C-alpha cells in the first residue's frame, strides 16, 4: 500500500486505493485497507485530511511540519504550503478561549492545471 501511495503526490480515498490494489491483483478486503490506513496514520507514515464532503483522504508522508494543502478536486494532486500568520492567529484565538493543543487545518480545493486542460476527469468516477 505504501508503494502505491508513493507513486504520486496526491490524496487517495480508501475506495481508490482498494480499486487500484485489485487491478494489481492484490488479494485484499476493503476493511483491511481501512485498518492499514488507520494504522499508517497513527504511525504518521501517511497524512490524512477530510475532503469537502467529509470523506477521509490519505497520501504518503508524515506530518513533519505544519502545513496546509491545495488539493485538486478531480485527481487528488496536492501542493503543500505554509501560512505562518494563519497558524499564529489560530493559536492566539484558541488560547483566548482557553484551548490547548491547537491545530489549524486550512485546505483549499480547486482544479489543477492538468485537469483543467483535459476534457474529462483524470480519475474515473470523479467529477469536476
UniProtKB/TrEMBL annotation:
Binding-site positions, Zn(2+): 72, 75, 112, 115
Highest taxon in the source lineage: Bacteria
Full protein name: Ferric uptake regulation protein
Gene Ontology, cellular component aspect: cytosol
Cofactor field: Zn(2+)
This protein's UniProt keywords: Cytoplasm, DNA-binding, Metal-binding, Repressor, Transcription, Transcription regulation, Zinc
GO biological process: negative regulation of DNA-templated transcription; regulation of secondary metabolite biosynthetic process
